[in-house]
Amino acid sequence: MFDRYEAGEQAVLVHIDFPDDGSKEDLEELLMLASSAGVETLDVVTGSRSTPNPKYFVGSGKAEEIAQAVKHHGAKLVLFNHSLSPSQERNLEKLCQCRVLDRTGLILDIFAQRARTHEGKLQVELAQLRHISTRLVRGWTHLERQKGGIGLRGPGETQLETDRRLLRGRINNILKRLQKVQKQREQGRRARSRREIPTLSLVGYTNAGKSTLFNTMTESQVYAADQLFATLDPTLRKIQLQDVGPAILADTVGFIRHLPHDLVAAFKATLQETQEAELLLHVVDYSDEHFRDNIDSVNEVLEEIDAGEVPQLVVCNKIDRLEDTEPRIDRDEQGQPVRVWLSAQQNRGIDLLFEALTERLSKSMVEYRLRIPPSEGKLRSELLRMQCTSNENYDAEGNWLVNVRMPVSDWNQMTKRTDERLPSYVTQQS
User: Fold this and answer.
1) Long-range contacts made by residues 166-171, C-beta under 8 angstroms, separation at least 24?
2) Residues 91, 55 contacting (CB under 8 angstroms)
3) 204 a known binding residue?
4) Where GTP is bound, by residue (predicted)?
């Protein structure tokens, strides 16, 4: 379908500085992206321009320099730290005689490598198809015109039109399958909503330590590595919070500046966990010198997916790389936690994070002294299962005397399940 040069694993990287802050990219980030994609960097070509060149993105002289570097090192790939138009990609490929990928294409390639679940693979394929739909070129020149068959008139459609039609069909097929996934997620969210279980969503710049923090908080074994986009498929786990009860913690894909719009659209079903969360845990690598820019980039993506209004608790991670920084909680003027300083890698400050979450999510609680008759064995079992009891003993008639402490919502639900019998067992209100 595509008349393009084959990509290799040895590449020349290109980074151009622009005076406009909106067009600036980070060279170190490009090197990390290339490494995460399994690409060996043979050379880095840098330069500066005021505006991109319409033909090559760079000037003709710089384009020749890139072509010479490719020839000198025998590279099979050129990676640009910027977004290229389809015509710029083709012009550069013709000049360099090798495959050219822009920043968006490189990120899509990493996502394709990382996808593990069926849903993740569908989302990545959708993003890739949308990206390459504008980059189709004519293949199989001997089939440029397909002749009409028996009973048909006209010369038929060009091969390029055939490719585009097949592409549209595949995109529509993937969208239908992703709609089913979205309905399943919505059913799960409705069930959690009926049980009044809050959802917490980990968000942050890629490689900020979200998965390491997720594993530490939930005692899970989610894949975590010191590389960009180590996590792609979302993971949900239940955690217990004092005075709150169970909560759902969601680990999500990391964000990056200038995140491709095709990716944001493709991962809409996944990112809905973020949109509908009660609280976002915004994980920030405070050892990164660009942490302020990273925070802005994450907030931009949150605005784009309509999650900008969801309350945030900032998690200042990797304090083990900072001097004279100890775990602590920063509070606002009302005394509400707004930042927690910790090290997920060294398991330092995790208790402070749970304390802050309890404060941010704690519901109004009830405390009662109950006298429960021996016939209510089922009710007794449920209270023990909820771990809300203390100071247990028995009176002379065999009644169970116990103190309970639970959220108001749980008390109301239990009252309904016992046909309003539960309040009659209250002997004292704390």
Assistant:
1) 166/1, 167/129, 167/132, 167/133, 167/136, 168/133, 170/129, 171/126, 171/129, 171/130, 171/133
2) yes
3) yes
4) 204-211, 229-233, 251-254, 317-320, 343-345
pLDDT of residue 352: 93
229 annotated ligand-binding residue: yes
Known binding residue 335? Answer is no
Tell whether 210 is in a known binding site. Answer: yes
271-321 residue pLDDT tens: 666 777 889 999 999 998 888 988 988 888 888 877 888 889 999 999 999
Query: What's the rounded mean pLDDT across residues 237-243?
Result: 83
Separation CA 133–CA 144 (nearest Å): 18
Confirm or deny that 171 is annotated as ligand binding: no
14 is in an annotated binding site: no
The 3-class SS string of 7-58 reads CCCEEEEEEEECCCHHHCCCHHHHHHHHHHCCCEEEEEEEEECCCCECCEEE
Report the run of H or E that residue 270 belongs to, with start and end: helix 268-275
Kindly report whether the global pTM for this prediction surpasses the value 0.90. Answer: no
Spell out the CATH class of 10-101.
alpha beta
State yes or no: 345 annotated in a binding site.
yes
- pLDDT above 70: residue 141: no
Here the tokens at position 204 are 């942050």
> With helix as H, strand as E and coil as C, how does 318-360 read?
CHHHCCCCCCEEEECCCCCEEEEECECCCCECHHHHHHHHHHH
Instruction: Tell me if domain 10-101 and domain 366-429 are identical in fold.
Output: no
Which residue in the block uniquely carries the two structure tokens 């989302």? 123
Q: Is 100 annotated as a binding residue?
A: no
Q: How far apart are CA 24 and CA 254, in angstroms?
A: 20
Q: Which residues of 237-272 are buried (b: 16+ CB within 10 A; e: fewer)?
A: bebebeebbebbbbbbbbbbbbbbebbeebbebbbb
Residue 105 assigned as binding residue: no
Residue 317 marked ligand-binding: yes
230 assigned binding-site residue: yes
Q: What is the rounded distance in angstroms from the CA atom of residue 98 to the CA atom of residue 185?
A: 42
Fold of domain 197-362: Rossmann fold (3.40.50)
Annotated binding residue at 43? no
Check whether 211 is labelled as a binding-site residue. Answer: yes
pLDDT at 191: 63
Using the predicted structure, report yes or no on whether residue 148 has a pLDDT greater than 70.
no
Q: Which residues pair with residue 331 across a beta bridge?
A: 337
Q: What is the mean pLDDT of residues 380-403?
A: 89
Task: Map out the domains of the chain as residue ranges.
Answer: 10-101, 116-147+154-195, 197-362, 366-429
The tens digit of pLDDT for each residue in 161-171 reads: 777 778 888 88
